[in-house]
Amino acid sequence: MITALxxxxxxxxxxxxxxxxxxxxxxxxIPLFWILVFVVLFAVxxxxxxxxxxxxxxxxxxxxxxxxxxxxxLAERYAQGDIDEVEYRKRLxxxxxxxxxxxxx
Length: 105
Prior knowledge:
Layout lengths: L1 H17 L7 H31 L9 H15 L4 H13 L8
Keywords: Membrane, Transmembrane, Transmembrane helix
Protein name: SHOCT domain-containing protein
Organism: Microbacterium elymi
């Protein structure tokens, strides 16, 4: 008889201790924790990817922007001594004046 009462009372005590079948407010903290983890990861790695893309002159699909590529080639020619500073500045000015305007600007 006592065993039957103890067995019948055990689930009620267990449920009251944990706050019911869904563990009370702790049940909501688990998804919130994982959402926070994903937001932090996206913020950190997304910012690094965007910064690297902006510094490298790469477009949204990994290809170098044509006007940026032309400026890089011109800078390489200047560094190798193929052209002097005056020629470099004139050509750079022409490249930047004729550069296409990105969409949305």
